[in-house]
Each structure stands twice: as structure tokens, then as C-alpha cells.
Design a protein that fits this description.
single chain; 119 residues; alpha+beta; four-stranded antiparallel beta sheet; 3 helices; flat
């Protein structure tokens, strides 16, 4: 079996398992408002083959990841997309800036002046 056929087979199996329900989720209706959760799905495929000595070798793999990215809100007034913002990364960024500034303040170069008093 060649590598291209193997990767095509993997791609077909993975894409068949990612349905609209897996990406968008089940709609939730409350009153006149319907909310549909939305996710972002990514695929990555790789493979390789070679000829070592008398035998041939090869292999392949794939990675699938999904993360929430927002929701669709459907009302009588219209439809809008509400993005999901992950604020945990912002906290780590702020902490890193504060720790970096403290490190520079405490370990930076020091200037010492000697002041002589007149006699």
C-alpha cells in the first residue's frame, strides 16, 4: 500500500466522523431565542515511507483538534455570532509582564554615588 492511498483513507475516515452536529452542537431554544454552539475543528495529516535494505517501511498519522469559538444566536430580530474569548491567556500574559518588570527592577544595574561632605 502506498503512502498516498494510506493518507487518503485516513482523511476519509476522519472527515466522516466530523459531522455538522460535532462542529456546531445541538441547538438550545429558550423562549423565542435559539443558541447554537460553534466549534473550530482542525486536521493535520502526515506520513512517510522509505526503503531500508530489503524491506520497505512507512507510516502515517493524523491529529484532530476542536475548540469552542462562539455561538450563533437566532431571534426574531435576526441572527448574530457571539465570539468566545478565552481570558486565561490574558492573565498569563499580564503575569509574565509583571514578573519580567520586577526581575529587571531587582536585578538591573545599580549606580552608586559617593558624596563627600565638605570639611
Amino acid at each position: 500500500m502506498n503512502i498516498q492511498a494510506m493518507l487518503e483513507g485516513m482523511a476519509e475516515r476522519v472527515s466522516a466522523s466530523v459531522s455538522v452536529k460535532n462542529v456546531y452542537g445541538e441547538p438550545v431554544t429558550v423562549g423565542d431565542r435559539t443558541v447554537i454552539p460553534v466549534a473550530q475543528v482542525r486536521y493535520a495529516f502526515g506520513g512517510g515511507g522509505g526503503n531500508r535494505g530489503e524491506g520497505e517501511g512507512g507510516g502515517g498519522g493524523c491529529k484532530v483538534s476542536a475548540r469552542p469559538c462562539g455561538a450563533l444566536e437566532i431571534t426574531a430580530a435576526g441572527t448574530r455570532f457571539i465570539p468566545y474569548v478565552d481570558r486565561s491567556g490574558m492573565g498569563l500574559l499580564t503575569l509574565g509582564i509583571v514578573l519580567g518588570a520586577a526581575l529587571v527592577a531587582f536585578t538591573g544595574p545599580r549606580r552608586i554615588e559617593v558624596i563627600q561632605r565638605p570639611e
